[in-house]
Design a protein that fits this description.
Mean pLDDT: 85
Strand order of the largest sheet: 2-4-5-6
Largest sheet: 4 strands, antiparallel
Helix content: 10-25%
CATH architecture: Sandwich
Oligomer: single chain
Low-confidence stretches: none
CATH class: Mainly Beta
Shape: elongated
Strand content: 25-35%
Distance between the termini: 94 Å
Number of domains: 1
């Protein structure tokens, strides 16, 4: 009888130890992401090569129609004329194939408006954004 109790107890332990546990399906592959924060930026310059602080700056994702403009840093001597096109804050909103982001800005004194297009990718499972194409400088 004792032998039967031991076998029964062992069987119960074995059954509960081997029962399948439900886990949530993982949609994205396991990745190790770095802690850096990436940005795609553009620098506006005049014909003489001097940085220009523009007015009416916009960056619009053509696929979604949404703005990717972040709060740009206050203008200083070091970052004058530099504007963010997209950042890692937008990574989940961008497609893996890349989205076209149309940037436009107006010169503060001449009121000349310029536009440029960038292709930036990200995606639901991406760690960071990546600039696929687009200028690093735009001349006003």
């Amino acid at each position: 009888m004792k032998k039967l109790i031991y076998i029964f107890s062992f069987s119960l332990v074995f059954v509960f130890a081997c029962s399948a546990t439900k886990t949530e399906p993982v949609e994205c592959a396991q990745m190790i992401c770095t802690q850096e924060f990436r940005m795609v930026q553009v620098k506006f310059k005049d014909a003489a090569g001097n940085p220009v602080t523009v007015k009416d700056y916009s960056a619009i994702n053509k696929r979604t129609g949404t703005s990717t403009v972040q709060n740009n840093e206050p203008v200083t001597v070091n970052n004058q004329g530099i504007y963010t096109v997209a950042s890692d804050a937008d990574v989940k909103k961008l497609s893996e194939a890349g989205d076209v982001i149309t940037v436009s800005a107006t010169h503060p004194t001449t009121n000349n408006k310029v536009t440029a297009e960038f292709v930036v990718n990200g995606g639901k499972c991406a760690c960071h954004i990546n600039k696929v194409s687009g200028p690093s400088e735009v001349i006003l």
